[in-house]
Specification:
The chain has 3 domains: 54 residues; 96 residues, Sandwich (Immunoglobulin-like), CATH 2.60.40.10; 96 residues, Immunoglobulins (Immunoglobulin-like). 0% of the residues lie in helices and 46% in strands. The strands form 8 sheets. Strands 11, 12, 14, 15 and 16 form a 5-stranded antiparallel sheet that branches. Strands 20-19-22-23 form a 4-stranded antiparallel sheet, with no helix packed on it. The protein has a 3-stranded antiparallel sheet with strand order 9-10-13, with no helix packed on it.
């Protein structure tokens, strides 16, 4: 071991040369040391074998207060606090974040392939991870890195959110009579997680009421149908010769995006 330009000598005897080992204490972390080793017997000391310079390092501790939670079906927010001991030599502390699926994927959304990746060089103590699959279980690992020295990983398990179904297709609004509108649509192309029951909410409201128009129903101005299992519904008791906005939304446990279309009832006497 080199110290102040000189080699300190350690004498080791009565050991098997095939299992030579010595522990040297009281060294300073972060300093460069050089070592040389020689064998000695009754005839004297043999030539020294020298090792290249070695820098003593100590890895950072594990990060603290790791938290991970889903913000959408496709991304999560991960946050943590820096380790109590950043290790040595003291340098720029960065973080590696690895995430991987733990178990099978439940939703199979082809637009968001399953990923198992590592993000390196993070200098903040938080990161948003995008590209997750909806509704599988993920495991997130965070490791502090001091140069090339990596600390022990801290792990967190999270469940990503279920994905909402897509928008309904080919929404049509047709007048059946002066007071009836028929609404038809097709199921969305993406219906969320397999095995989820998809239902529909239908909302309507008058946007252009004909002058002096009357209706027998108290729901002529607006109304809502919820939990419909079929892809059509007839609304009755509306104002004649009036225009209505119709909004249809596909739902599982998660509400999808709504689709709106306008339609007008017949004028009385047109049938």
């Amino acid at each position: 071991m080199q110290d102040s330009g000189q080699y300190k000598e350690f004498s080791v005897g009565d050991i098997n040369v095939h299992t030579c080992l010595v522990t040297i204490g009281n060294l300073t972390c972060g300093r460069d040391y050089r070592f040389k080793v020689a064998g000695t017997n009754s005839a004297g000391t043999g030539p020294y074998a020298k090792l290249d310079a070695t820098t003593l390092t100590r890895p950072p501790d594990a990060v603290q207060s790791l938290s991970a939670y889903a913000t959408t079906p496709y991304e999560c927010y991960v946050t943590w606090q820096m380790p109590a001991d950043i290790g040595c030599p003291e340098g720029i502390l960065t973080y590696d974040v690895r995430y991987e699926i733990n178990g099978s994927n439940s939703c199979g959304d082809e637009d968001y392939p399953s990923v198992n990746e590592t993000i390196t060089g993070i200098r903040n103590t938080s990161v948003i991870i995008r590209g997750f699959q909806p509704f599988p279980v993920y495991v997130v690992f965070v490791m502090a890195r001091n140069g090339e020295v990596i600390g022990q990983p801290e792990m967190k398990t999270l469940l990503t959110n279920k994905s909402a179904p897509g928008t309904v297709r080919e929404l049509r609004v047709n007048a059946l009579s002066p007071s009836d509108l028929n609404i038809k649509w097709k199921a969305p192309s993406y219906q969320g997680c397999p095995g989820e029951r998809i239902t529909y909410d239908v909302k309507y409201y008058v946007i252009d009421k004909a002058p002096c128009a009357k209706a027998e129903s108290s729901k002529a101005n607006n109304g809502t149908f919820t939990g419909k299992l079929v892809t059509n519904v007839t609304i009755s008791g509306l104002y004649p010769n009036s225009t209505y906005a119709v909004i249809v939304t596909a739902k599982t446990d998660v509400t999808g995006k709504s689709v709106m279309k306008n339609g007008s009832t017949f004028t009385s006497g047109m049938l």
